[in-house]
Amino acid sequence: MLYNFRESTPIVSYVKAIDLWMVFCIFFVFLTLLEFSILIWMRAIREDAEKDNTIEDKNGEDIATRRKNLSESLSQHSTSSSTLRAHGVFTEIVEKYAFVIFSIIFVVFNIIYWTWLLQAAKYFDWDVNATHTSIGEDD
To answer: In whole angstroms, what is the distance from residue 139 CA to residue 137 CA?
Structure first.
């Protein structure tokens, strides 16, 4: 899509407003995909730890032995239960607030971008009647 825009616009030595818009949108999509993959990775870590706990529970061990084995297996994998809880809390926070934060960032960017673009183009100073009258007089 960016290629099509660049092909249909004149070649200039400066950055155009459409370039800024397209780069920001692509960057925003990249950030969203990055956030999604981090959450999937963290969820997989938590599910692996829970799976280890479930397997030990099915073996019919008593609670004290199971906790001891679980703590040993977690320390062997260099992942403690507090770390797993921290991953879980972080994942829940990101899932809850990422949409809101990304939406706010996008709205703020739009406000800044369109205000700047319309001011730079002197859109608000444009007199429609003068332009319409001068077009008719050229004939």
So the answer is: 5
H helices of the chain, in order, are 2-8, 17-58, 63-76, 81-120, 128-137
Is there a contact between 113 and 20 (Cβ–Cβ < 8 Å)?
yes
Tens digit of each residue's pLDDT, the chain (139 residues): 656 766 777 788 888 888 888 899 999 999 989 988 988 888 887 777 777 655 544 555 555 566 666 556 555 554 556 766 777 787 888 888 888 999 999 999 999 999 999 888 887 777 767 665 666 555 4
Residue 22 in contact with residue 5, Cβ under 8 Å?
yes
Q: How far apart are CA 11 and CA 5, in angstroms?
A: 11
3-class SS string, 83-103: HHHHHHHHHHHHHHHHHHHHH
Dist CA 33 CA 58 (whole Å) = 37
Rounded Cα distance between 113 and 16, Å, is 12
**Which is nearest to 105 in space by CA: 42, 40, 29?**
29
Encoded amino acid at 50, one letter? E
Tokens of 52: 């280890």
